[in-house]
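Section 5.1 Outputs to date
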Amino acid sequence: MDPAPPPLPDDALASVLRGLVPRDLAVSRCVCKAWRRVVDDRRLLRADLLPRSLGGIFLNLHGLWFTQFLARPTTGAAVSGRLDYTVPGEPDRLPILYVSDHCNGLLVLDHCVVNPATRQWALLPPRPEDLPQPPPPGMGMGVCRDEYLVFDPTLSPDDFELFILPSVPYKLTQSDEECEESEWPPSTLILSVFSSKTGLWEEREFGREGAAAGTLPGMVGSVRSFFDHQGCYWRGALYVCCSDCFVMRISLSNSTYRVIRLPTEGGEFYLGKSIKGVYCASLFQESQLQIWFLNDECGHDQTEWVLKHDRDIFPILPNLNYDEQCDGPWIFQEFYYWGPEQHYDEISELEVNEVIVEDKMEEKFEWDSDNDNVLEPGSRSNDSCIVLLGFHPYKKVVFLSDKFDRVLAYNWSISKLQDLGKLFPKFYIEHDYQFFHRLVSASFPYTPCWLGELPEKLNSEARLQD
């Protein structure tokens, strides 16, 4: 046998390992003790820069065209949910500052993709005026289209892609008798995709594996329950809830997709990712909560939903007899960009951190989803009004809101509820004449990412001088 090659000096090995993306760098630590020592001693892998913690929840409210932010307290660098610095031109000509998707620390706005942690952003070119996906032959129909972001900093911290996907048609412009039956989704799905590498929109084809969800016009009107926008990215695939009966799994590596039936039909549900992968929370009869896990690791034929939790949570709902505007352990950042009166503080990114530190100095910073702010069950009238807000990405926790307009965290492993804070900003409550339907239209649990470079950056020093 040939003798083993001599080991590389630490400096040379470190130089080679620096060229790896974070995911491969993490794998290299498992090769041998020498490699692990070099990675750790030279601090080549900064796990604290990756989106490995929950920073808060971005909330879109009905009738309000700028997203609010319920921030989790932290001993680390705080993140501001204020996003108007991304707007080019005059500040009095603000576009809609409305988050349409989130993926691993990046947010999608109408005009850009932004990283709130680093305060960097990339402006988006105009969307394609004529999306490539045509309606089935002989059928005119109305189709909603949503945008879904794909960003994996462990593969490429500087690049992202934005997909435009059609939902199930919500109406036909011709009578059913005149329409020919056709499969939905079609055997070949043509999507508009924006790539930050090229800076261009392009058309991509994805071939369907397996059966369609159904046929048109029979599926027309099979809309998603409550939140229109539901999807997540997990390990090279984009999972999108397209109706109240199926999820589309889009594989980015081989340009294929397949249909996965939802575990239940009817009621309210929320699709997202949590501790081990893709989950679906469903709510029946107002308070019967089910948590399902998508076992998607065994191949196409063995994909199945596994029931992880099934409980009527009404008996443990607390009776919160206090003002809905009282603060909780989480910090509500209120932003009202329009009108003569500004409802947000004119403070810099550094000042945001200082204010939060001073106000919370005497309290325990890091929120413990097992023990902090646990609520005792209370006697309530039979009107729970529960709304699903999303999953904690790294704990067995689902976020809810209740009739008292509070954000609650439910830990399904120990069946405990915790109060996090208020659901609506003060100005949203006070302007009842304007926002007379107070409800959440979308929510995005946010995981800060401190890696990557986007083209546009906020000059903090210049801002402080202003």
